[in-house]
Sequence to fold (617 residues):
Amino acid sequence: MADALLNPLSLTLSVQTSEAFAAPAMSLADRASRALESGVWGAVMYIVIGLVAVLTAVSVLGLVMSYIERKVAGHFQCRLGPMRVGPHGVLQSLADGIKLLFKEGIEPGDGDKVIFIGAPIFSITATILLLAIVPLAPGIQVVDMNVGVVYIAAVSGLGVMGILMGGWSSNNKWSLLGAMRAGAQMISYEVSLTIALLVVVLFSGTLKVSEIIESQQQGWWIWRGHGVAIVAFCLYVIASTAELNRTPFDLPEGESELTGGYHTEYSGLRFSFFFLAEFANLFVFSALAVTFFFGGWLPFHVGNYEGFNSVMDLLPPVISPIFWFGSKCATLIFILMWFRWTFPRLRMDQLMRLEWKVLLPIGFANLILAATVVLSGLYFFPSAT
Amino acid sequence: MATTTPVPTETECPPIDFGELKSNCVAPRPSIMGQKRGLRSILWLSFKGIVRGLLTTLSYFRRPSTVVTQQYPENRDTLEMFERYRGRLSLIHNEEGEHGCTACQICERLCPNASIIITKDKKNEATGKPALDQFIWRQDTCTFCNICVLVCPFDTLEMTGDFESSVFDRRLLVFNLNEYAGPTAGQLDKLEDDELAKAQMKPMNKYQGPVPMCGGEMDGIPKLDVEKPTDA
Fold:
């Protein structure tokens, strides 16, 4: 108490943080299920809020990310990027969106109409389902299920279906080749991605996403798990680049050889659905990396060094998650864009060789090493968990 | 373990001379493929290559001064075109407004699509040598191949950076390049009488003589005080 009197700031901070973190914040789905006990309409309201939030997030992310991507790409290539629509071209993606809205949605005459129309919807549904589990801040999460990691692995594989359907139903050789490449690539890299995530599951001992974040209260897994976590993170970044179909792994839509790959025949709003899904996925995979390796919305903490931790907690509880999550996520997105505009595209056989002969053995070895580390408690601050 | 491939020396790979444009043959960087290297060496080289590539793009990203994009209509007053850009063809005139064209017609003969027509005075009264009458350039058919500039023995032609050449009538794209009809600067200097030299320089209008405009009138083009050539 004397200590608290001497330093009132630390007292208020500790009260605030304990309030923010101690009580498990409820996700929208949990709130809906609780509301169901008293009536249907409360639950319906929460579900509608969740749906509207996720759909808004997808469209806003698509707009913002495509603008940022084009700006970053421009400056990496000694260009300026969009400069004409609005100051520094900020309204460019809005103008593009309006343009795509008014374009005719052409269907190939010999294509499979039903699958053709369904493919982009499938693709964006997978993204929406993924976005539902991303924890943005304590309680700002649509679904927080106890098998979160399994759900992520399952749903992120669903995006392949949309691409395969689109490529198949277009009845176009480029589309089909692109879709087949996408199928082979995304299913292969899915394995590495999941193995990289499993390392963190071993460390935190839970599959629930919010609990994985809370297990990083004493420090983020990327440095608490030292070498093992760093290898897992590198695997995750490489595999997620492949999952996102971004250069150097953008074979499914390699313009120079397949015109547009799986979305060659798509136009108008259907094309923009693929486009939105791609950019929202970029955010989702970065957000998941932040969640698993960089402590989600948690500030940078070092074990039990109270002084250092309280400095990191200086931000008020409302701004703190936004700042920490936003800055970490933005950095990761920038790194992915940096990769895209630096590396040339791989060949198909090189891609497959990298996954099955390099990444997968490294991933398995790393997983076994992680298990050893967890069993012997070799990671930093083991007492905290 | 690591063996190095011999790097081609200067003698094996001499600089190539293309006249004005000089090119140094770049010696190929030793490839890591096909060499007997250990796994560690290959990994290290790959890592170095990846990092070097990332740093290169980052250095462009960090420095906005490397941006080459020109914000054209906005910076129209300060726009500087590149030295080798091929815009409008121009006959070089010195400070006294004298050109160096002897009307040898090499450019006319070598022009691949006959975009240059030269008429000349076979024997100038004062110098006794052929003198340029009209240097007509057809911008509408020119492909800006630069051959006329390269072959000119007196280096009197150049491609300027002037690219704003849109007009509403294509007849305006055929015009004279010379500002006067008469002998070259060198021949004029040899004449002792300055008055005589001045008299040899008959001012030439851009749309004068046998060009499609041919003294015609058009909005924005002043009426020329020249007669239409009559068919003899």
Observations:
- Chain B has two domains: 16-65, 89-203.
- Chain B touches chain A at residues 50, 53-54, 56-58, 60-61, 64, 66-69, 71 (CB under 8 Å).
